[in-house]
Design goal:
Blueprint: E1 4-8, E2 12-19, E3 31-38, H1 40-50, E4 54-58, E5 60-62, H2 65-77, E6 80-81, E7 84-86, E8 93-98, E9 104-110, H3 125-133, E10 136-140, H4 145-158, E11 162-165, H5 169-172, E12 184-188, H6 189-196, H7 203-212, E13 217-222, E14 225-231, E15 234-238, H8 252-265, H9 270-285, H10 297-303, E16 311-312
Parallel strand pairs: 1-4, 1-10, 2-8, 4-6, 5-7, 10-11, 11-12, 12-13
Antiparallel strand pairs: 2-3, 8-9, 13-14, 14-15, 15-16
């Protein structure tokens, strides 16, 4: 029987402009426009579904054509999509400008609708049933602070592990009050700095700062540099493999989260789960999409051959 995952978080439209040449600030840059369904929680949900898990998604959505695009993307990925639909509102959007090398220049997040996902929505019978049926709960910081706290309380009450995705430095601070209820938080160095008030160069100090806030476990990425992960008394680092053909870094962190969580759900230890996360991210950054359409358990296993062993720091 497949493991079941409940995801509560962002599911919206991603619009990305890709600059063809060198970026010139304050000027018109030749490029191309692309849009697809996205969102931290939704990307992780689709990745987990492609890796063979039963995934249910609960997220607020507008009654517009954009919302229908999100619903279709969920259907194609095999995600059980159960949105709260607000017919008179527009579905959230994320608009980004990407440099020719795939790195982010700037982004704008129009996410007002997520504020309507208030804690009382968790009292709906279908949502309570979804918590009870899940082996793992995943949320992201697109949701309001009080709702994230309520998700952590309900997950603890059900005895279910909770993972969270930081989304951005501005949003990760919403998770601070409920960090003690999170088993794994996926964040980058900037988000870790926003959460702790500053991150030193030594990975051990990052881990100490996050543990001091009550966080049980986490994975911190730094672009092409080493990734640091911890859980309980275990701390491990790993170097991401060099990717020959970089497509787009959008969604890489979400796929890494899905890869790590898929391995943990399969009973693997943290260092090996970290390797699976890096493999999933490597597949994603070679794709033009935020969720690689060719991602599968078999492809991830074959990609593990390109990933080195994680190093233990404790």
């Amino acid at each position: 029987m497949n493991k079941s995952v409940l995801v509560l978080g962002g599911a919206h439209i991603d619009r990305r402009g890709r600059i063809f040449g060198d970026t010139v600030a304050g000027a018109s840059n030749p490029g191309a426009w692309f849009e697809e369904a996205g969102g931290g929680g939704f990307n992780a949900a689709r990745n987990l579904a492609r890796l063979g898990f039963d995934v249910r998604l609960i997220s607020p959505r507008g009654g517009d054509a954009t919302g229908e695009m999100v619903a279709e993307a969920a259907r194609q990925a095999g995600v059980d999509d159960r949105p709260f639909i607000f017919l008179d509102r527009k579905t959230p959007s994320y608009t980004a400008i990407i440099e020719n090398d795939g790195n982010l220049v700037i982004a704008l997040a129009d996410m007002e609708l997520y504020g309507f996902f208030v804690p009382r929505r968790l009292a709906v019978r279908s949502v309570r049933d979804a918590f009870d049926a899940a082996d793992l709960i995943v949320c992201d910081a697109n949701l309001p602070e009080e709702t994230l706290g309520a998700i952590a309380e309900r997950a603890a009450g059900c005895g279910k592990p909770l993972a969270a995705i930081a989304i951005s430095p501005a949003k990760v601070v919403r998770l601070r009050p409920c960090l003690a209820g999170i088993d794994y938080l996926f964040l980058n160095q900037a988000e870790a700095s926003a959460l702790t008030g500053g991150v030193a160069d030594d990975p051990r100090q990052w881990v100490s700062s996050l543990r001091a806030l009550g966080l049980k476990g986490g994975v911190i990425t730094r672009g092409h540099r080493e990734i640091v992960a911890f859980s309980g008394d275990t701390t491990a680092t790993i170097e991401p493999p060099r990717v020959e053909q970089l497509g787009d870094v959008t969604g890489a962190g979400d796929s890494l989260a899905a890869g790590v969580l898929s391995a943990l759900l399969a009973g693997l230890d943290l260092p090996e789960a970290l390797r699976h996360g890096v493999a999933a991210a490597a597949i994603t950054v070679q794709s033009p999409f935020a969720v690689a359409e060719n991602l599968s358990a078999d492809l991830m296993i074959s990609t593990l051959g390109l990933v080195g062993e994680a190093k233990m720091l404790s």
